[in-house]
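Sequence in, structure out.
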Amino acid sequence: MRTDYNSLVSNYNNLVSKYNDLVSRYDEIFTTASQDATAVTLVYHTDFGNEMHILSLSIPYDLYEFYHEKPHPVFSTDNPEAVKAYITPNDTVIQDIVSVIRSQTESEEELADALLDLVQYKGYTLSVRYYVTNEFKYPIETLVEMGGDCDTHAVLYASLLKAAGFKVLFLISTDGTHAAVAVHLTDPPTHNTQSEFHYFEYNGERYYYAETTGSGWMVGDLPPDLEGTSFYLVQI
């Protein structure tokens, strides 16, 4: 009988814990934004994909309008350096995101992977979605509009990494069909999902490939369909 009682108590405590967790997540998702701002809610993972978090942002309309009305220079294989205009690590929203996620991670690799997970399209609603667009976007536009092309995901990730103090390369494939990011880590990644990590040598340092569009890829992973792809490297 004592064993049955202890089992019931344990099950009850587990249910209470799950209930409290659901209440907490509900409160996070339904955070109310002020009337002069738009609410954005994103799901991301720390502990290399094992721990889920919900982040609700309140982005002022005037900040979005500021970027939406700014010039949007074209960056391409003909002018890859133009991408630097879109990198905005000093934005308060960008810095706030980094501050929250930094407090939840324990190493530079975990931080780089958690920020990567934040910008990847996961196939469900609360993520930065991938969809085709003919326009370039600043990070604030990408957050408010909940996504865009590969270049918009990459610009957002590069901005977050710079705000976190990482050395960053922006990557534009030489055929002009893809954009991604490479990030410098002090030590090689140990949580990439592939048997080998992929990196670029730049000024005597290694920058590890980061696929910003599809989910599941970790820093150092290179999707098989990109094997053999050459890239223009832009130091951010």
